[in-house]
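FORM 7B: Structural annotation worksheet

SECTION A. Query
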Amino acid sequence: MVPILKKAWSEVLHPLLQRPNRLQVAALCYRGQGMEKQVLLITSRGTGRWILPKGWPMKDLGAGEAAMQEAWEEAGVSKGNLCEKAVGTYTYDKALDSGWSIVIDAMVFSIEVEALEDEFPEAHERRRTWVSPSEAANMVEEPGLQSILRQF
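SECTION B. Predicted structure
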């Protein structure tokens, strides 16, 4: 009887009760070309781990434009060339203040940085650094993001 219940849970009930993943947009900010290419990482506010600027979609902005807005607010990117087509998507668990976590699918948009400001909305809450894509892949925790960075 137990195998039947396990099968019913895994194949019928669990999929029906599972919530869909939430969507965020992320900015893969870079400068340079070829072997000189560097990407911009920032620290998260909570744990201080290295991440890309990212956030929730915004009502009056397309996904890429929202990623550009996050790049400004979280990293100080004031001017850049946005690629409107996502370079990839990765999944991660986002911890909530309540102690629960939710699954996020983050769409990643590349932005070639033209201007970076020292004063921006979250300047006093984050650190930022320029590193090679392969070094960035070693600094972030999410396997899907590591893969995107290694291919970049």
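SECTION C. Observations
The mean pLDDT is 91. Residues 74 and 124 are 10 Å apart (CA to CA).

SECTION D. Sign-off
Analyst initials: ____
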